[in-house]
Amino acid sequence: MKDTLIVYYSLFENTKNLAFEIAKQTGGTIRELIPDKKYSFDYNTACKEVRSEISRGFCPKLLSGNESIDDYKTIFIGTPNWFKTLAPPVMGFLRQHNFLGKTVIPFCTHGGGGFSQIEDDIAKECSEAVILPGLAVNGIVAPEEVSNWLNSINFKL
């Protein structure tokens, strides 16, 4: 759908795979958030980097993905669950845009923590948007899981 945007940040491909499945089923435009400094591909090192950024409220500069959202009515926002909240590049994206009159639909990938605070954090940053129930996926995304979720929130092409 021309007025639907799927924005995501993914370090290890899980959130990217979910974003692409959502785009496939909705016809939306996909946009990857790319921070100016890449996180380590070593899991333990990346955890230290991310924990530090989250505790400081740091949001990295985005090299890509931060373009205008004015032409979109519905915005799916995807993030991995990092320490019970959004990945810092996603928080940075949220803080740089006005969501007045938009419909925001969160999605996340996780290793067992579900959404934790992610939906609440998105609602706080997008207080002028309509927030629909999101999808939290543990592991590999099943296409039918996405289609069932889209049906449950009455998302129509």
Automatic annotation (TrEMBL):
InterPro entries linked: Flavodoxin/NO_synth, Flavoprotein-like_sf
Listed SUPFAM superfamilies: Flavoproteins
Signal peptide span: none
Domain (Flavodoxin-like): residue spans on this chain: 4-152
Descriptive protein name: Flavodoxin
Species this chain originates from: Clostridium punense
